[in-house]
Structure formats: structure tokens, C-alpha cells
Write a structure and sequence with these properties.
The complex is a heterotrimer. By secondary structure, chain B is mainly α. Chain B is about 50% helix and about 0% strand. Chain C has 6 helices and 13 strands. The chains are: A mainly alpha, B mainly alpha, C alpha+beta. Chains in contact: A-B, A-C, B-C.
């Protein structure tokens, strides 16, 4: 059934059209076509739907968090009535710790990474490089279906005794390893570790595919320096995953061993947590080994999780570059610097993990070294921003929904990136570590950045995926409201952080230092509810357009990259004619032709 | 993939405006969100229910008896949303109303409350001083104060703050003075304290103070069950009601190594108000126990019985300060080795005092006497229960309801005492025992000297195992000096 | 029309950004408080000035870049051609510009990086407290702060140790060096007004120091009456746990009570007496 894939195509000689002729025309059943498909487009869409569903779940968790922060210890709608009916429908403090843990986990591992690398990586890579499918389609399919056990374990975590994991998405031991330290650490944490292991395996399957496909299966004439920036970004993100994920998996296994087999990698001696000494031989504690170091987890975890944040932002940057260039009808300003910047971000990204640990008790001398590398990583990001500005300057902007979201990405990435410089400097970090400045920073880059880039990418590539175009008016309304409310929610968090407001606090207003911050938090929460409600424009637009949207041809945006040469939606094997690449992907406003775009594959 | 059908543009007429309407409607809803606090009711202790069911009452069904007790308690103590002590005639006549308790506080305490209020309401007082009355923000846990402020005081100060409150009474001053006075002299009503309890305490201690809130299953030791009126870390004799100061002390200092934190960041007034509310919960529980016993013995519940028991419980609490424990001479400041050795001998004595039988030969809290035969499993042993657990077991509750009440004698090698580790604190524990636990009062044969010997023996054990000293000793060894000399260098690593 | 809306949105964000940089009252949505300068609680330490200065310097730099990039962005969006026949400028980049905007930020960033090393070392390195006596121990546990002082014999762990729950009482004189420990999980010792933060790691004993600046203290402290009738000064600030430690993380509040030297000595004497108190009612 899967003999349709061409894994033996050498670079520059592949002729997808030829391969297609050799296809046997067999009918795949529904399951093989839509469920256990090896077609990269189907897998990409599977990741996309999964990611969007979890975006809603992560958003709901965030709404609960915002409710608690605006009006602590009041009746919480829905959750209060279901879970805490006898104590006034008010959430408990341990429930709050579970909320922010799961919000972070879901958003990072089940939304952003699946959407960026899983959905768009899968969908776009073969299309943009002119390949008929991925290098290892079966591995690709397994990669998606490894998310299934991950999801199962995640959900089991919610329902385990003691409730879901509650040690933060960062899962620092001993809070996460000692069962008596938190109710979520009784069993929920174990499910969390298992879920993350499977997500990691899923990402690895994808990463292997992406790198191999990009390196080996480009269409003839598609040199590395003629690849769209999306592909460069996905390649770099895949390399990041390949090198960093094993460390997280190893760390996760060590923590799992600490929790199940009672090893002591992260457990210091002589702890007494909630009256229980983990080393004691009674039935509950079980005689765990000790002599470990909590800091070891932090190093291992951040060694992955810092590159992870670049995995979350680099593909967004790549896609935003493509979208901006296309809708501004102007070539990308500084293609090579853009490529080198992304590579620099990724490379430097491996030596900055300690900036999450400045206050952790590690040797302060390390603080200096990590500080220098972290400050330097601001540079390539800045270069990219300047290049985007250079792209829109003097352009002929079409303010389509896709472009709007891409510009919103740039605007909010600027804010998120600039605030990062405060965090990079260690003395300032003494004050702002674990405050809302950090929360503002990463939400600007991940929500204002990656999520807006995802919206842009969906608006932009929806026609290719479904052969229909999303409604522009609804898209514009969606953007305006989301932009306003996103900034309403996250901008003032910078100020909250400057006032010293701590993260992860269920109720900060009893501290004199924070007593005056409740009205601002209330405002932020109301903006958050509005932001969540506003997404209805996107949801309706998405589903309506999928079935009844206006039909479009191959290239509604008059774009230059290869995916627009394929039919919309592309069939099996993607392209229906021979392809060869003659130029870069950003030849807009080219003087060589009358139209304002010159596709990569067109011969002149 | 979406099946090939004709395009259908989004209908302009109903859909888009509908969406905008939904969005704007959500906006309006969001702005008008007004979160509420739910109405709660006190429920009966499961012990009470079990006792009534096992009592084989003749004249009344258990459910009816329970309802009667519930009704009586509600009359006496109110509901969580509106807790009130029923005011007895003689209290009313003598101006000794416990609602709010400030009428029963002494001057010193009240002065401390006012001092605390000046800090707590610093922002409000600052704004009042500056004449910015409209900007005065609502303080937490002070709804009745806020209601008084907005309804009575604010309109007056906004219109004319220099007017006299009562032209015939100079002492009351102007409305501006009154504005400041309202905040400075604020003492929480029981309702305000109940709301504060709901936000700070209920999730562990439960609505009725039974130590059974949603977080309690995850805590070790379990939170205190107030309903028997027994409190461990007090400065009064065993099985006596605690003084206000004892409860306040726990709120201020917390209970070290348990999940009960100190709440010293709150003002004295708020803490005194919480003490009032905890007393209400404890008294309610005790009255519940007595009424249950009355129903069991008499078969019915009369109004006279209810009031009698209410008064009885109040008197015990009022008389608590009379049973305060202190030492009349000076506390010894250090112990000679002979004194410590004498203490050790007393400790190891298995006939008199018998400390070692529970606390173990090394003081690790692993003595044999803490184990007894498990009534639920033949031939197996289980830890003895403390008095709360025993009461529950006697009422007929199942094994699952006895979890968390197992005895756990102090492990002196862990170097922390929950009720305070000063010599006088240990003196109290040894001489008078610990209410609610199997730690008895010292036998009459023990003189005060004997008790101080024991105190210093225990402190000696604690000293030997203290982490800082172990580190110090280790470093001292490396530096070649005695462990008792202070280090000149930072001793961390 | 969309162009105007987008221009308006980005301009509004730019204005918001610049405005909140300078004005801290309008957006607070609540009354202003004493003890705050701009958004920050005022610092009363001797070494916090370096941190605040660095924050402002970086803040100014990022404000400049924020304004520059936004002006270009807004200008580009607003000014981009609307004529459908006109093509955009066909350029793939400008080498000189790339060099310029690589070199300038690089130099600025490196300057920032190297200029702050001294501040960091002064606060966190062991050299700052070499040879100093450890005067207290701060112990973090779920969910409270406990402190102890060595008492008259100068040794921790003996009977005469002074124990304090929640209140960390420190004198206003030279560097006050103390050890930070945790009994169970990770916590963090955060005092905003002293610009102090350090994670408390179980299994580690971490030396820390604080030093209250006498002038700043004098400006903010309140007068208190001591037992012997004389006047001391006191400033109480929050101590907050800054590392998730379980469900009670939010209520793990402590207080740092900074006392003038005479008040501190009076407090120590009072505590020493309390330690051996016999409980006799007065």
C-alpha cells in the first residue's frame, strides 16, 4: 500500500512526475487514507487539528488561572460546580498549581510544537522543496500516532489520585519526585513524564524525517540557498530537536526512575517532606535512595528546554518571513543574513540554558558565562527583525488576514525579544526572576509570536490545504480583536513584574508589596476572557471555509514558492508535472516579467 | 478531505452580525462579571451521625435527632455566611456580648489591634489624611467595614468632612476624624472572620473546622479538628480549653514542620478575629458532642438542655486562663552533665514515667507502646490512635475514617518541636502532657527538678542531631578546632 | 481602511509602550502608594543601586530600539504603495545596512554584558563575604520561613539559639551574612525591597548577605518605642518565596524587619530573655 513513496530519489535528479506515473492506482480505505495515512499532508492536518483542539484546552486552563488571579477564592464558573461543590465552589490551592502546570505543558508540548513542527513541518516541507512525500512516510505516520499515548497519559494525569501534576511544567525535583511534596506528585507526575516521553518520540520521528527530506529530496535546481526560509527554519528546528530532545528524554527517565524505582538522582539526603523522609523504610516512602542533586535536573531539563523555545520560535520566524514577502510583493531583505541568523540562534541556543538558573544556587561564575552568551543571542534575533522591516519598507503591502497576523508577529516579537535583554543580565535577573516580567516575555514571544504566526500560516496555506480560501473579513476582524486583547493581557504584565509580582502564586494580594495590583490583574483577566471569546471568529471561519469556502486555484496569493505549483489541495505525490527550480523563492516585483511575481519553477 | 461541493460564501446577513454580537456580548458579560461567594451550611460531624445511628434511640429517629441538633446549633452559632453567638441574658445585661468579641478584650489587646490597624490600613489612612476619600480602596476581609464606610461615612466626608459627627458630642470629632477612626478601631465581625477563614483556612480545616477540607487528605499530620475543643500546643493544663493567647500564638508562629504556616503577616485585628471564629467552631463542635450525648441518654432534646450545654462550654473557655501553666522560679539556663544524666535515667525508666516505651531508646519516637492490636485485622498491629481517633472509633466510624489520627511520638533526632522548643515549652509538655494525645502528664513523683532534667536531656539529644551543628562539627574537624568554637569563615560549601 | 486600522493599532501599542515607560500611575488602575518609585518598590539596600541602574540603562536602550523599529514598521505599513500597477522595490538586501545593524547592536550588547559583571560579582561571589561571621540562618520549608540566630554562645544549634518564625530581624549596620537552607523542596528567598533573591536548595547551605543603606532606611523607617523608653527605627518589608514549592507557595510569606542598631540590640536582649522565660504572667 505504501509503495507509492519514492525514498530513493537522489538530490537534483528526482522527477516527481515520473514517480507519479509509476503509482499503482489503488483505492485506499478510509482508515488508510485519513487515519493511519502515510501521506505527509494528511499527517500534517492531523497534527493541525490535534494542536488546535489542545489550544482550546490550554486556553480554558488559562481562563481558570486568570479567574483566580482576578478574583481569588470566589466561585469559579463550571469548574467550581463540578469539582468543588461542597466547599463553596471555590478552587483549592493545589488545584491552582495543577492549572498552571498543565497550561504550560499543554501549550508547549501539545500545541505549539505539534502545530509548528508537526503540522506545518509535515505539510509544507515536501511541497516547498518539490518532493512527492517525506523520506520516511511510515516513520512519519508513527510519529503522529505516538501523540496518541501521549494524549492518553496526559488525560490520565488529570484524573489520577491527587489530581494532575502540580510541579510546574518545569517539574523541578524534589517537588516533583517526592510523593508527599505535592498531591500532584503522588501519581499525576508519573503520567506527565510518560506523556512527555511519547511527545519526544513523536518529535524525533518528525525531526529525522525533516532533515533527511530536506537534505536529500529537493527538486532539481533547488540548492540550499534557494530554499524558502520556512524550510530553513524547519530544518534548523529539526536539528535542534534531534540534538536536544534526547537530553530531555534522559532527564525524564531519570525522574521516572526516581519516582517509580526510588532511585535518588535528584533527591538530597535527610529530607523531611510533609513528615515523610523518602529514605525511611516505611510503606509509604519505601526506602528511596538519596544523595542526589536537585540542580542536576535543572541543568538537564533546561539543556533541552532552551532549544525548545527556539524550536517554538524559529519555524514561526521562517513562516512569517515567507508570508511577509509574499503579501508585501517584495523579496525578503537579506536572505543570507536571515539564514545565518537562524543558524546562529540555534547554535547559540545550546549554550544559554543556564540563564534559567541564575538564581538556582549554581556557581555564580557560570552566571557570567551564560550571561554573555544570552546577551549575544539577542543579536541574530534583532538582525531578523531589521530584515523584516527592510522587507516591508518600500513594499506593496496587501493587508490580507495572513499578512496582518504576520505583521502582528513581528510587532509582538519585537516586544518579547527586547524584554529578554533585561532577563539576560544577571543582576537585573536577581529582581525579575520568576516574576511576571518573565511571564510577559515568554507569552509575547510564544503567544504574540508563535501563535500569531500560526494564525498567519493557517490563513496563508489554508487554500493549499483545502482548495478553498478563508473569509477575509472575518480574518481581519479576528486579527484586530486578537491583537488588541493580546496586548491588553500581556503588556501590563511587564509592569506587574517590575512591581515584583511573583509567578505561580494563587493569591498574591495579602502581601503588602502586591496589594495594589488586583485591579490591574482584573483588567488583564477581562481582556483574557475577551481574547478567548474572540477566537470564535477564527473557529467559525476555519470550519465554514473548509466546507463552503470560496474555491480557489493553485496560487491565490500569486506566490513564488514551489508549493503553489501543486494543485489545491495537492493529490497523492503532490505535483502533477515535472519541476525544476531556476531561482530563489522571493522573486517578487522582478523586472524580468510583467507580473509582480516570478515563481521559482517558471522558465523565462 | 472536504468533499467537492459548491462554494457557499458566508451568509452576510445572519452570520457575521451574529458573530459580532456574540463577541460584543461576551465583552459586556466579561466587564460585568461579579464573582460571588457561595452560601455554605455547617454540617454535622460524621461522628455525631454515626453515634445517633448506633444509639438505638426509642423515641426519635436518628435523622430527626440529627435535624434537631442541627437546628439547635444553627440557633446558637449561625451559619458560615452569618455566624453569630446567641447572646445569653446575663451577657447582654453585663455588656459582655461576644458579637464581636472586642467587647470582651482587654485594653492591651485592643491597643495592639489598633496599632496593627494603622499598619494594615496604611494606604487608606494616608488617602483619608490627604482628603482623597473617593480613592480609598476596599481592604480585603473587611466587608462589613467597607459597607459601613460606603454607606455611612463616605457620603458625609465627601459632602463636608469638617462637619461635626454629633454637634452635641465634642468627643466624636469631625467626619474626617470619624473616617480615620473607623479604620483604626476596626475589629472584625464574625462574618468578616468567617470570610477570611473561608479564603485562608477552609481548604485545610474544613467548613466546620473538622480538619477535613479538600487539601487535608494530602497533609501529614492532618489539620486540627477543632470540634472536640482539644488543642495540642497550648500553655494550659491538659484537657483544658485553650486561652485566646494560645490560639493566637499558633496563628502567629504556625506549627513548625506541619502545613500550618505562620500568619504573622496579617494584622493583630484580623488574627484576633480568626481566633474568635475558631473558638466559635470549636464551641460548636463541643456543644454538638454534648447535645449528642444528651439525646443518647435522655432520648430527646429540650431547649433547656441546649442552653445549659451552651453555657457550660462557654464557661470552660472563659475559665481557661485560670489553668495557665508557668514556672515560678527562674528557668535553668544550662545543664551540668549530671543533670543530663539524671534526665537520661528518668527517660529510660520503664516503671515510672515510662518515656522510653513510646519515645524509644534513642528518642526516635519508635517505642513499642505506640503499637497495639489492630481491631480491624486479626493478629496485626497498628499504631495507637490519639484521642480524636479514639472518639471516632468509639462512635462506630469505619477504618477509613480513622486515617490520619495515628499516634506519632516526637522524634527528638529531628530537632524540631511543634509547640516551641524553649525550655519552658518542653516543661509544659512534660509536666502536663499534651491534650488529645497519648502523651500523659508527668507522674506526681516527678519533682520540678526531675522535669528540668528531662527537659535538658531531650534538648541535649536535639543538639546532638542538629544539622547546622553537624556541618559545623564536620568543618571544625577539618579545620582542627573544637566544634564548640564558632567558625571564623562561612561554613557553607 | 485596513491600513488605517493597522497603523492605528501599532501606533497605539507604541504609544502604550512609551507611556508606561514613564508613567506608572495611570495604568495602575488603583491608587498610588508610598514606597514605590515608578513601578518598583524603592530599594533600601546598599548594592541594589547597581541593579536599578542597569535596569534603567537597558530599559532606555530597548525603548530606543522599540521606538525605532515601530516607527519604521508603522511608516512602512502606512506608506507602502497602494497602487496596484506599481511594483515594490526590487531589492534583495543591502550589505552595508546589514553590517551596520549587526555591528551596532553587537557593540551595545557587549558593552552591557561586560559592564554588569562587576555588579554581579559584588553581590553573588563568595569573595564578597570572605571572613565574615554567619549571623543567622534562614530555613525555608513548606510553607513558612524560620530563622535562627546563634545566641550568646555564638554556636548554632544550642539551647540558647533565638528562633523566629516569619520575621527575619536584621540590624542596619554592616553586611549581615546568613546561611540559607531548605528542609524539603526548592524555595527561594526574595526580598523585593532589598533586591535580594536566591533559591534555597535542599541539601545545600548557601551563604548570602544583605546590607541596609542607612540613609534610605532613615527615609522610610517608622519610629518605634523600645522597652527602655528610647526610640528606635524599624522598617518592615515582605519576604516572598520565589520558587514553586507546592500548594502553599503563595502563602509562604515572611517579613524582613530592619531595625536600627539600638532597636536590634534591644530585640536580641528581649529574645534572649524570652528564650528562658518562665511564663510568669505580669
Amino acid at each position: 500500500m505504501s509503495s507509492t513513496t519514492a525514498t530513493h530519489v537522489a538530490p537534483g535528479t528526482g522527477s516527481p512526475g515520473t514517480v507519479r506515473e509509476h503509482h499503482e492506482h489503488h483505492e485506499l480505505g478510509f482508515i488508510r487514507k485519513y487515519v493511519f495515512s502515510t501521506d505527509h499532508k494528511v499527517i500534517g492536518l492531523q497534527f493541525m487539528f490535534t494542536g488546535l483542539v489542545f489550544l482550546v484546552l490550554g486556553g480554558l486552563l488559562a481562563m481558570a488561572i486568570r479567574w483566580q488571579l482576578a478574583w481569588p477564592w470566589t466561585e469559579m464558573p463550571v469548574i467550581g460546580s463540578i469539582l468543588f461543590p461542597h466547599t463553596g465552589r471555590v478552587i483549592t490551592p493545589e488545584f491552582y498549581t495543577m492549572l498552571f502546570t498543565m497550561h504550560g505543558t499543554v501549550m508547549i508540548f501539545f500545541v505549539i510544537i505539534p502545530l509548528l513542527t508537526g503540522a506545518f513541518g509535515n505539510f509544507l516541507i515536501p511541497l516547498m522543496i518539490g518532493a512527492p512525500d517525506m523520506a520516511f512516510p511510515k516513520v512519519n505516520m508513527i510519529g503522529y500516532w505516538l501523540m496518541a499515548p501521549a494524549i492518553v497519559f496526559l488525560m490520565l494525569g488529570f484524573f489520577s489520585p491527587g489530581g494532575g501534576p502540580a510541579a510546574g511544567w518545569t517539574a523541578y525535583p524534589p517537588l516533583s519526585t517526592i510523593k508527599s511534596a505535592a498531591p500532584g506528585s503522588i501519581s499525576g507526575q508519573t503520567y506527565w513524564l510518560l506523556a512527555l516521553t511519547f511527545v519526544g518520540a513523536s518529535s524525533m520521528a518528525g525531526a529525522v524525517n525533516y532533515v533527511t527530506t530536506i537534505v536529500k529530496m529537493r527538486a532539481p535546481g533547488m540548492t540550499m540557498m534557494r530554499m524558502p526560509l520556512t524550510i530553513w527554519a524547519l530544518l534548523i528546528a529539526a536539528l535542534l530537536q534531534l540534538f536536544a530532545l534526547p537530553v530531555l528524554t534522559a532527564a525524564g527517565i531519570l525522574q521516572l526512575l526516581d519516582r517509580t524505582l526510588l532511585t535518588g538522582f535528584f533527591t538530597p539526603t535527610n529530607l523531611i517532606v510533609n513528615q515523610i523522609n523518602p529514605e525511611s523504610l516505611d510503606a509509604f516512602a519505601g526506602g528511596a535512595a538519596a544523595g542526589g542533586q536537585p540542580l542536576l535536573w535543572q541543568h538537564l531539563f533546561w539543556f533541552y528546554s532552551h532549544p525548545a523555545v527556539y524550536i517554538m520560535v524559529v519555524p514561526a520566524m521562517g513562516m512569517a518571513s515567507d508570508i511577509i514577502s509574499t503579501h508585501a510583493r517584495k523579496p525578503i531583505f537579506g536572505y543570507k543574513p536571515m539564514v545565518y541568523s537562524m543558524a546562529a540562534i540555534a547554535g547559540l541556543g545550546f549554550i544559554v540554558w543556564g540563564h534559567h538558573m541564575f538564581m538556582s544556587g549554581m556557581n555564580p561564575a557560570l552566571g557570567m558565562t551564560f550571561m554573555v552568551s544570552t546577551i549575544m543571542i539577542a543579536l541574530p534575533s534583532a538582525i531578523k527583525v531589521f530584515n523584516w522591516l527592510g522587507t516591508v519598507y518600500g513594499s506593496r503591502i496587501q493587508l490580507t488576514a495572513a499578512m496582518l497576523n504576520a505583521l502582528g508577529f513581528v510587532a509582538m516579537f519585537i516586544i518579547g525579544g527586547l524584554s529578554g535583554i533585561w532577563m539576560a543580565s544577571t543582576p537585573v535577573d536577581i529582581y525579575i526572576h520568576d516574576t511576571y516580567i518573565i511571564v510577559a516575555h515568554f507569552h509575547y514571544v510564544v503567544f504574540g509570536g508563535s501563535v500569531f504566526a500560526i494564525f498567519a500560516a493557517i490563513y496563508h496555506w489554508f487554500p493549499k490545504m483545502f482548495g478553498r480560501i478563508m473569509n477575509e473579513t472575518l480574518g481581519k476582524i479576528h486579527f484586530v480583536g486578537s491583537f488588541i486583547f493580546t496586548n491588553g493581557v500581556f503588556y501590563m504584565m511587564h509592569q506587574l513584574g517590575m512591581a515584583g509580582l511573583m509567578r505561580r502564586t494563587a493569591d498574591p494580594y495579602d502581601y503588602e508589596t502586591y496589594a495594589h495590583l488586583q485591579p490591574l490583574n482584573e483588567f488583564i483577566s477581562i481582556c483574557a476572557f475577551c481574547l478567548f471569546a474572540w477566537q470564535i471568529f477564527f473557529v467559525v471561519n476555519f470550519f465554514h471555509s473548509m466546507f463552503w469556502g470560496k474555491r480557489v486555484g493553485r496560487n491565490p496569493w500569486k506566490a513564488c514558492s514551489l508549493e503553489w505549483d501543486a494543485p489545491s489541495p495537492p493529490g497523492h505525490g503532490n505535483f502533477d508535472r515535472r519541476l525544476a527550480v531556476h531561482r530563489g523563492p522571493y522573486e517578487y516585483a522582478s523586472p524580468e516579467v510583467d507580473e509582480d511575481f516570478l515563481p521559482q519553477s517558471r522558465t523565462v | 478531505m472536504p468533499h467537492p461541493s459548491t462554494s457557499r460564501p458566508l451568509p452576510r446577513r445572519p452570520l457575521r452580525p451574529a458573530l459580532v454580537g456574540i463577541a460584543l456580548g461576551s465583552l459586556a458579560l466579561a466587564c460585568g462579571l461579579e464573582p460571588k461567594a457561595a452560601e455554605l451550611r455547617y454540617s454535622l460531624n460524621e461522628k455525631t451521625i454515626a453515634e445517633l445511628e448506633n444509639a438505638q434511640l426509642e423515641d426519635v429517629a436518628p435523622a430527626t435527632a440529627a435535624a434537631q441538633i442541627q437546628g439547635a446549633l444553627e440557633m446558637l452559632f449561625g451559619t458560615p455566611s452569618d455566624p453569630q453567638f446567641l447572646v445569653l441574658r446575663e451577657w447582654y445585661d453585663n455588656d459582655q456580648n461576644p458579637n464581636p468579641a472586642k467587647w470582651r478584650l482587654d485594653e492591651e489587646t485592643f491597643a495592639a489591634v489598633e496599632e496593627g490597624n494603622r499598619r494594615r490600613f496604611a494606604l487608606q489612612l494616608e488617602l483619608i489624611e490627604a482628603g482623597r476619600y473617593a480613592e480609598v480602596p476596599q481592604p480585603r476581609y473587611a466587608d462589613d467595614l467597607w459597607a459601613d464606610w460606603t454607606e455611612r461615612v463616605l457620603p458625609q466626608v465627601l459632602s463636608d468632612d469638617a462637619a461635626m459627627v454629633d454637634p452635641s458630642d465634642e468627643e466624636l470629632g469631625t467626619w474626617k476624624d470619624e473616617a480615620a477612626y473607623v479604620f483604626e478601631s476596626h475589629y472584625p465581625t464574625l462574618r468578616e472572620s468567617s470570610r477570611m477563614y473561608r479564603q485562608q483556612c477552609l481548604h485545610c480545616h474544613g467548613t466546620e473546622g473538622g480538619g477535613d477540607g479538600p487539601t487535608s487528605p494530602y497533609l501529614s499530620p492532618r489539620p486540627r479538628d477543632y470540634r472536640d475543643g482539644k488543642f495540642k500546643w497550648v500553655a494550659v493544663e491538659r484537657n483544658t480549653a485553650p486561652r485566646r493567647e494560645d490560639l493566637l500564638h499558633i496563628l502567629m508562629e504556625g506549627v513548625n514542620t506541619t502545613a500550618m504556616p505562620p500568619f504573622a503577616r496579617f494584622s493583630r485585628g484580623e488574627l484576633e478575629g480568626l481566633v474568635d471564629y475558631v473558638r466559635l467552631l470549636a464551641m460548636r463542635g463541643q456543644v454538638e458532642n454534648l447535645l449528642t450525648a444528651a439525646v443518647k441518654s435522655e432520648g430527646y432534646l429540650s431547649a433547656a438542655t441546649v442552653l445549659e450545654n451552651y453555657q457550660f462550654v462557654w464557661e470552660r473557655w472563659d475559665k481557661a486562663p485560670e489553668r495557665y501553666v508557668y514556672f515560678e522560679d527562674d528557668v535553668p539556663r544550662e545543664a551540668a552533665p549530671e543533670m543530663i544524666e539524671h534526665g537520661r535515667q528518668l527517660f529510660l525508666n520503664t516503671k515510672v514515667g515510662q518515656c522510653v516505651t513510646c519515645h524509644g531508646p534513642e528518642g526516635r519516637g519508635n517505642g513499642e507502646s505506640i503499637w497495639e492490636l489492630d481491631p480491624f485485622r486479626d493478629g496485626k498491629m497498628r499504631r495507637r490512635l490519639d484521642e480524636w481517633g479514639t472518639a471516632r472509633q468509639d462512635a462506630g466510624l469505619p477504618e477509613a475514617a480513622l486515617k490520619g489520627f495515628e499516634t506519632s511520638p516526637r522524634n527528638f533526632q529531628q530537632a524540631v518541636f511543634r509547640g516551641g522548643g524553649r525550655p519552658i515549652d518542653l516543661y509544659r509538655r512534660i509536666k502536663y502532657g499534651i491534650s488529645g494525645t497519648i502523651m500523659p502528664a508527668a507522674p506526681a513523683e516527678f519533682s520540678d527538678e526531675d522535669i528540668w532534667s528531662l527537659v535538658y536531656f531531650v534538648l541535649h539529644l536535639v543538639e546532638q542531631s542538629d544539622v547546622a551543628r553537624l556541618i559545623d562539627a564536620k568543618v571544625a574537624l577539618e579545620e582542627g578546632r573544637s566544634a564548640h568554637e564558632p567558625a571564623a569563615q562561612p561554613s557553607g560549601h | 481602511m485596513m491600513r488605517l486600522i493597522v497603523t492605528a493599532l501599532f501606533t497605539a501599542l507604541l504609544v502604550l509602550g512609551v507611556w508606561t515607560f514613564f508613567d506608572s500611575t495611570t495604568f495602575l488602575l488603583g491608587p498610588e502608594r508610598a514606597g514605590y518609585r515608578w513601578w518598583w518598590p524603592t530599594d533600601v539596600s546598599t548594592y541594589g543601586g547597581g541593579i536599578d541602574l542597569l535596569f534603567v540603562v537597558i530599559g532606555v536602550m530597548i525603548l530606543v530600539f522599540f521606538v525605532l523599529t515601530y516607527v519604521v514598521l508603522i511608516g512602512a505599513v502606512f506608506g507602502a504603495s497602494r497602487k496596484s500597477e506599481e511594483k515594490a522595490a526590487f531589492t534583495h538586501g543591502n550589505h552595508k545596512l546589514e553590517l551596520l545593524w549587526t555591528a551596532v547592536p553587537a557593540v551595545l550588547l557587549l558593552i552591557i554584558a561586560f559592564s554588569q559583571m562587576q555588579t554581579w560579582a559584588a553581590i553573588k561571589f563568595r569573595g564578597a563575604i570572605a571572613g565574615e561571621e554567619i549571623r543567622a540562618e534562614a530555613i525555608a520549608e513548606q510553607f513558612d520561613w524560620r530563622f535562627r540566630y546563634p545566641g550568646t554562645d555564638g554556636v548554632f544549634g544550642t539551647v540558647d539559639d533565638i528562633h523566629s518564625a516569619t520575621d527575619f530581624v536584621v540590624p542596619v549596620d554592616d553586611k549581615f551574612v546568613f546561611h540559607l537552607r531548605s528542609n524539603d523542596v526548592l524555595h527561594s528567598f526574595f526580598v523585593p525591597k532589598l533586591r535580594l533573591k536566591q533559591d534555597a536548595v535542599p541539601g545545600m547551605t548557601i551563604p548570602m548577605w544583605l546590607e541596609v543603606d542607612p540613609d534610605r532606611f532613615a527615609r522610610e523607617a517608622q519610629a518605634i518605642e523600645l522597652a527602655d523608653g528610647s526610640e528606635g527605627r524599624e522598617l518592615v518589608v515582605d519576604l516572598i518565596c520565589a520558587e514553586l514549592c507546592g500548594w502553599g507557595h503563595y502563602k509562604m510569606a515572611g517579613r524582613v524587619r530592619m531595625l536600627s542598631k539600638n532597636a536590634f540590640e534591644a530585640w536580641m536582649a528581649e529574645q534572649e530573655a524570652l528564650r528562658f522565660d518562665n511564663g510568669e504572667p505580669e
